[in-house]
Design goal:
The chain has about 500 residues and is mainly alpha-helical. It has 25 helices and five strands. The strands form two sheets. A three-stranded antiparallel sheet has the order 1-4-5. The chain has a two-stranded antiparallel ribbon with strand order 2-3. Belongs to the peptidase S54 family.
Amino acid sequence: MLIVPLHRAPTWANMPWVTLALILANVFVFAFLQSGDARVRADALDYYAQQDLAQWEFPAYRQWLEAHGDDGRRQALFERFADVDAGLATQVLQSDAAFLAELRTGGLIAPDAQQREAWRERRAEFDRRWDAAFTERWMIRFSEFDPRRMFGAMFLHGGAGHLIGNMLFLAVLGLLVEGALGHGAFLALYLLGGLGSAALSLAWRWGETGAALGASGAIAALMGAYCVLWGTRKVRFFWWFFVAFDYVKAPALVLLPIWLGWELLNLFWNEGAHVGFDAHAGGIVVGALLALGVRALHWERRDFLDEDVVADARAQREVALAQAREHLGHLRIPAARALLEPLLEAQPDDFQVRAALYRCARTEPGMPRLSEAARAVLSLAPRDGAEVREQKAVYEDCLKAGAKPSPLSPMQAIALLRRWPAVGAGAEAAAHLAEWIGRAPATPGLRAACLGVARDLRERGESAPARALLEKLFAAWPASEEGGKARLLLADFA
């Protein structure tokens, strides 16, 4: 079974730099530091056979296994050890940390001092050759608690396929978890998850012989953390099970019992697979617990986590808005309102929704909500020229329709007109301001708006409307500061 979350693409803004560094570190260790290990191990095994170390150690190991036969795992190993060839038997012996610890004291070798000394010299040389393999020095050995090995094993792999599979999962999950945590917290979770996975695996395997390596425990921690960090947010993921596959959207938390259950199922029913299902399950649990701590401390980056939710809401809004506009085009006003009003409730400052609701009010018989709808559009601060032009159209349409009461106060109307030169409508703004001078000259902000619009027109080369407005301004307030500036500007036209 394969389940991979695929709902976020990498960009320069969310590039998972720590994930990329971890991938490069794993590739470097495998391609360079582990590259000669097969040759080193073969050389050590050849030396073991040439020096006939088996004549001392194989009988000692059989006796030691027999003496520990009360342990079911040891008994099974005793039976298996008797049926394997010398090369494999040597590797089995070398994987038993408890036996090696006792063997190196010399107490398991024949009591003859000369033979023991000969064995000791050959065993020391074999150990030197065996430990020359980088993998051997850093891989986890069951029944031995060594934090140094627990850390190093996270960067080791048993083959190219093992490496590629792990790195693909690290790339996918790293993008999602690093983005949710930030670089430093992500690295801490990855390393702690890997160490926790190794500790739980050792606890499960204690008393066994063998070794383990690979980044999958730390990657499993990312799986557990991913489920908890995204929680009930719906995410898109790809799944494959034998010949069936598909893309599905579901809450991320649903993946936690599926992923963990799959690892536990294989742990109990697929023991001969030589896969660290115990480390995988432990990593998922540790990662989930660490993510719970992150959420309790509010360290997660909610803006990153909510990007999908925001994008989905935006897409749904666009669809609803397009449908509402279509209804408006066919004069189906109630249907349009049914779509627009929930959008406005979700985002009260949505300019396009307010503008669409104005068109609804403009089309309704008797236009009972026209002033209210116009006010909702005109009172917003426009974000760009398109919204300024939309406000201009609504204002002029509202005046044409004779909306009562007026949708804007005089000060609001003056502020609205002041924005028009930016969209090439300065002359129209000047005409409206001239009307305000004659109708309500005491309106606060009117003089400054007139002077500002006249200057904008002058800078754009529209001399005639600029001069007309300046003359109105100077005639109305000759003794004011704005009147004095208008007089100086008019002098430039002479």
